[in-house]
Design a protein that fits this description.
4-stranded antiparallel sheet, 99 residues, mainly beta, 0% helix
């Protein structure tokens, strides 16, 4: 994902050519994580909205939103593991929540 473009880009890993692009929900997309091992959907976070958005990997369509509380750390890193979303922020906080 590219914050200034407000988009997720799909690129060919050998040629680095852009295959497609999907708009993000907000203006500060920050990290992405596969929703599961099938890789048919991915979560993209937005640090300004402090939320995660589930995208269909083929179409980019957003199908779900998880809103974090206003007082939670600002999302910077994310990884789905064993039914939990693990996250970190920009000052050292790490946290998780059950998906």
């Amino acid at each position: 994902n590219v914050p200034p473009a407000r988009a997720v880009f799909v690129i060919d890993k050998t040629s680095w050519e852009v295959q497609s692009a999907f708009p993000t929900a907000g203006n500060r997309p920050h990290d992405m994580a596969w929703a599961d091992e099938s890789k048919s959907a991915f979560w993209c976070s937005d640090s300004n909205l402090n939320a995660f958005f589930l995208h269909d990997a083929a179409t980019g369509q957003m199908t779900r939103r998880i809103q974090l509380p206003d007082d939670s750390p600002v999302i910077h890193g994310a990884k789905v593991y064993n039914g939990y979303m693990y996250c970190c922020d920009d000052v050292g906080w790490m946290f998780r929540f059950r998906m």
